[in-house]
């Protein structure tokens, strides 16, 4: 990534984690700068991924994990019948609407992480075959997982955007005025 994450106030682990998460979100947000929904939905590489789909996916994933940590059901439940909609815009969705939704999700994530008594507090993992039975993870794990998930897709976004019009992450940072 081409931006700098400022050092946290001494001892502010939550602030540091949330700053790194915000940095990775910014990489994906910048990847759609100046693109139409059609451009952002195109798949210019061998992959099925599009920038619009990545924006939708990371917002959905972040919301889902924070909901689980709160003991709530995710806003969108995915299974075999609708998994294909996870990475594409469907009727009524746009890049703008997904970015706005993600902004609300990000604010909720920050408020939640800042409100938990301890990053060592835990919550149950979903009952899915790829997680250990009766598994639990900490709030720290949650934020680190969101950083990893978002960073992975920010890298995908870099490749997709450069494949679309040649713009690199450096150019997009300058374009965004950062």
What's the topology here?
Elements (H helix, E strand, L loop, with lengths): L12 H19 L5 H5 L9 H20 L24 H21 L6 E3 L11 E3 H27 L3 H7 L3
Antiparallel strand pairs: 1-2
Helix pairs in contact: 1-4, 1-5, 3-4, 3-5
Descriptive account of the structure:
The protein has helices at residues 13-31, 37-41, 51-70, 95-115, 139-165, 169-175; strands at residues 122-124, 136-138. The protein has 178 residues and is mainly α. The chain is globular, with a radius of gyration of 17 Å.
Summarize this structure briefly:
The chain is 56% helix and 3% strand.
Brief descriptors of the model:
mainly alpha, two-stranded antiparallel sheet, 6 helices
| End-to-end Cα distance | 13 Å
Fraction of residues in β-strands: under 5%
Helical amount:
55-70%
Q: Number of DSSP helices? A: 6
Strand numbers in spatial order across the main sheet: 1-2
SSE topology string: HHHHEEHH
Q: Please compute the radius of gyration using only Cα atoms.
A: 17 Å
Secondary structure: number of strands: 2
Shape from CA axes? globular
Characterize the largest beta sheet: strand count, sense, and whether it forms a barrel: 2 strands, antiparallel
